[in-house]
Predict the 3D structure of the following.
Amino acid sequence: MTLSEQTNDFSEVIENDRAHVWHHLSQHKKYETVDPMIMIEGKGIHVWDAKGNKYLDAVSGGVWTVNVGYGRETIANAVRDQLVKMNYFAQSAGSIPGSQFSKKLIEKMPGMSRVYFSNSGSEANEKAYKIVRQIAHNKYGGKKHKILYRDRDYHGTTITALSSSGQAQRKDQYGPFTPGFVEVPHCCEYRSQYGECDDYGIKAALAIEEVILREGPDTVGAIVLEPVTAGGGVITPPEGYWQKVQEICKKYDILLHIDEVVCGLGRTGKWFGYQHYDIKPDIVTMAKGVASGYAAISCTVTTEAVFNEFKNNPSDPMSYFRDISTFGGCAAGPAAALENMRIIEEENLLDNVTRMGAYLMDRLHGLKDKHQIVGDVRGKGLFCGLELVVDRKTKQPVDESVAQAVVADCFAQGVIIGATNRSLHGHNNTLCLSPALICTKANLDEIVGAIDKALTKVTAG
């Protein structure tokens, strides 16, 4: 029986939440007069709140996480069984699910070799940065320590992860930041820095080389990039970009770190977003969809060559990777991840993402044809964005409040969508969609229908 069919009174839960819970990304002043939203139940692609309202979740748990949908009993059972048998031991020792999941994961990532477990995307990226810094010290006398990151990309919420994030509003009030992180230009062709051109992807990649030469190639150890820029506006890479980026990295002996925290585990129609672009990274990080939110887990995956940098000098007591993640040792994460991966395989969800993604993009282009406020439609698989503009000729972004009004209207219709917010000065104007990999055409029709009505209402004034 779903929440919508029940008559439970959750007023005490709401009041306890109001009095004691500090919510993420929330201004709590409003909760003095408005009840905080509390989600009680989820099934498939739908969720119910404490007041019995039903919503179609088009953002997979609010932050692009619940890839295989809600209510998966087999994942819950796998976690329960593992916790009863062996819930935790520090990752200095191994576990059965950790061993099994690592093997299965690496089978999906040709060229990669080793898996380091932790419990969030921010932490996975921190591990990668520590790997780069330690290699710099052990191999280059500390000099090749700089890490490049891209304007509009996001890599996490800790101070060092924010240091590598190209979203200025997210960084406001949290400095000073960790030194040694250097920004390179974005690759959003719709917002081309070079005007209209046929080789934007190459130009955007060469802009990275310009930064490397300015900083000194002997000081740059790695570059971290999202395969598709996520929270920065769902920016798909332009033609030729990734191949040129990899060529530049090889030319200057720079490690290529791909942040798959959002795109990983099927979101784009392949196991990982980078696999669309024929590139071979040195480090790949992942989190959200690894276990679809059924347990906390993230992975920092490296090639064997990177791994070997930490075992080539066993006589040096400081040469191994001296790092630990407490809850990287919790066996629930890999147990859930293993069953999550089985579901993706057995239900052919990658194929569903490809088919439904094409259908969604077609429907979104239909919205663009109908509504002048839609300036651009971008996406890969079931990860799509609509950039809203005041005028298509000037491409002036709408105010953030306009995009949020669309989100609010969809919510009132029972459909939860996302939008860039308080991230990019003047460019919080992209609606974001990332429904579960199990979604159907009927689900997508409902999502697009809600956005259509919201855009009509908002533009009518």
Summary: The first strand starts at residue 39 and ends at 43. The longest helix spans residues 349-370. The two ends are 40 Å apart (CA to CA).
